[in-house]
């Protein structure tokens, strides 16, 4: 079984991008490659089809990486998905389906069953593919968590995976981060660390080379390459920590404001709007930023009731209602749709206190009641006279009445639209029809699928040009070289 672990010196070092690029680079060589991440913590997820034919939920990043690998996404590629539901608790999705909750206190002791399932999923993928490119999470040098780790070196030890560490030089301190990551590991873990990749470099390569040579000399491990800073590079986001929006280069672009809910989920729903040349897409959490919106979007949320209270505490509820009363278009997606309804209730305590029943914003004739069973669907239909498709992930059961006909699993009342379908606006025909209906825009001809494919190809081209892909493929097939030196903290090789 051949495989490779892409670890990171820090969170957001670029592991997802490197993994995506390697998946496509290996696929270009005719290698049957699969992506894998033992555990994601993210509210950006996707529905795929499980081996039993049922819809299943995985992290969005692994779904995109499967596209890069040119294979069908499946639950084994992200066997454990943790969806934060509060400050210290997360909902668990295990092999694509709900599996209770886990708390921060359970981190060290209550996850053995998750580790067993994750490692079993890796073994299954490895048995069916030539190479598995596994992405770590955070840093492998979180020594306080090493005993219960099954995502980084715990996985590497399970499958004897050769590992390289990605460091983000744009943060500063990359040499200390790379050296220190290896030096903090025990000898058995260090034996699997074969080298490094430096990411997001911008500057004079001649000034960097002496540092790379010293890093190789001090660690006895090679640097497999340096990826340059690429400002236009972006993929479907794994998390919602960096919601920067997308700005148009054209004068007179229409302003799309996405309310930045505290527990926002599936923020990737607006990525396709960000590609439209006549739209500025921005995220906002202040009522004043909503006032000049041409189109206002309430995105999905992992905690509808809590985010409804947050809207009211900030006065955003009044800003949203006023926007609609002025006849401007308003779109609610999944949890955002539920916020627009008349009532939201939680009789079973799915989101919080059992028996909660509060008024919504009252802009759509809809009522939401949370149920313990989660709905996962890959629906298809028509809306605004065109074919449409998407995916559903929700606990809320929405009943409607008194509004215009069904709109993507939801309802429409004038210029207020509510849908339960994520990803629908990635469909070019539906997006064009919606923007023509709401903003009077002519079709732009932009293809979201083609844009995503170009981004994957760009990442793969950068990886091919700047990393030693053949050496990394050989590393995956042969394993870490024997006799790698053990670093003593504070010393050398």
From TrEMBL:
UniProt xrefs under InterPro entries: Class_I_gatase-like, CobQ/CobB/MinD/ParA_Nub-bd_dom, CobQ_GATase1, CobQ_N, CobQ_synth, GATase_3, P-loop_NTPase
Keyword annotations of the record: Cobalamin biosynthesis, Glutamine amidotransferase
GO BP, sorted A to Z: cobalamin biosynthetic process
The organism's place on the tree of life at top rank: Bacteria
Catalytic residues (UniProt): 334 (nucleophile), 422
One Pfam family cited in the UniProt record for this chain: GATase_3
Domain CobB/CobQ-like glutamine amidotransferase: 255-428
Residue stretches making up the CobQ/CobB/MinD/ParA nucleotide binding domain: 5-233
Pathway(s) it belongs to: Cofactor biosynthesis; adenosylcobalamin biosynthesis
Single GO MF annotation: catalytic activity
Function according to Swiss-Prot or TrEMBL: Catalyzes amidations at positions B, D, E, and G on adenosylcobyrinic A,C-diamide. NH(2) groups are provided by glutamine, and one molecule of ATP is hydrogenolyzed for each amidation.
Family assignment from sequence similarity: Belongs to the CobB/CobQ family. CobQ subfamily.
HAMAP family found in the cross-reference section: CobQ (MF_00028)
Record-given protein name: Cobyric acid synthase
Organism in which the protein naturally occurs: Streptomyces radicis
């Amino acid at each position: 079984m051949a495989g490779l672990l892409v670890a990171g010196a820090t969170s957001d070092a670029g592991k997802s991008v490197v993994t995506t690029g390697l998946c496509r680079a290996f696929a270009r060589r005719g290698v049957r490659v699969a992506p894998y991440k033992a555990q994601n913590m993210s509210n950006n997820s996707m529905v795929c089809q499980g081996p039993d034919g049922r819809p299943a939920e995985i992290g969005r990043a692994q779904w995109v990486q499967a596209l890069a690998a040119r294979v069908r996404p499946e639950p084994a590629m992200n066997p454990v998905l943790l969806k934060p539901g509060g400050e210290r608790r997360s909902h668990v999705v295990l092999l694509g389906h709900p599996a209770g909750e886990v708390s921060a206190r359970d981190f060290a002791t209550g996850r053995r069953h998750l580790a067993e399932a994750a490692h079993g999923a890796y073994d299954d993928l490895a048995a069916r593919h030539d190479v598995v490119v596994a992405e770590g999470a955070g840093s492998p040098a979180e020594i306080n968590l090493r005993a219960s780790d099954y995502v980084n070196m715990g996985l590497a030890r399970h499958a004897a995976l050769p590992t390289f560490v990605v460091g983000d030089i744009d943060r500063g301190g990359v040499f200390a981060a790379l050296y220190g990551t290896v030096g903090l590991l025990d000898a058995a873990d260090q034996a699997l660390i074969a080298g490094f990749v430096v990411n997001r470099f911008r500057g004079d390569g001649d000034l960097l080379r002496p540092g790379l040579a010293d890093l190789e000399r001090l660690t006895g491990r090679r640097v497999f390459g340096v990826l340059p800073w690429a400002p236009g590079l972006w993929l479907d986001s794994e998390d919602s920590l960096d919601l920067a929006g997308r700005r148009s280069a054209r004068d007179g672009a229409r302003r799309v404001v996405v309310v930045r809910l505290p527990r926002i989920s599936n923020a990737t729903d607006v990525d396709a709007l960000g590609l439209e040349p006549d739209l500025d897409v921005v995220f906002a959490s202040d009522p004043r930023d909503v006032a000049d919106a041409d189109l206002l979007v309430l995105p999905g949320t992992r905690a509808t009731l809590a985010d409804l209270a947050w809207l009211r505490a900030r006065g955003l509820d009044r800003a949203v209602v006023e926007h609609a009363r002025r006849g401007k278009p308003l779109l609610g997606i999944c949890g955002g749709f539920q916020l627009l309804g008349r009532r939201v209730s939680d009789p079973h305590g799915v989101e919080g206190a059992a028996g909660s029943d509060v008024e919504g914003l009252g802009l759509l004739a809809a009522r939401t009641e949370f149920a313990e069973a989660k709905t996962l669907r890959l629906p298809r239909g028509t809306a605004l006279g065109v074919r449409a498709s998407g995916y559903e992930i929700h606990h809320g059961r929405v009943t409607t009445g008194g509004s215009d006909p069904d709109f993507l699993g939801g309802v429409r009342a004038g210029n207020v639209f509510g849908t339960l379908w994520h990803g629908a606006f990635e469909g070019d025909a539906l997006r064009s029809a919606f923007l023509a209906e709401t903003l009077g825009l002519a079709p732009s001809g932009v293809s979201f699928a083609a844009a995503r494919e170009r981004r994957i190809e760009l990442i793969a081209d950068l990886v091919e040009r700047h990393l030693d892909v053949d050496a990394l493929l050989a590393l995956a097939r042969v394993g870490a070289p024997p006799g790698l030196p053990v670093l003593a903290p504070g010393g050398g090789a």
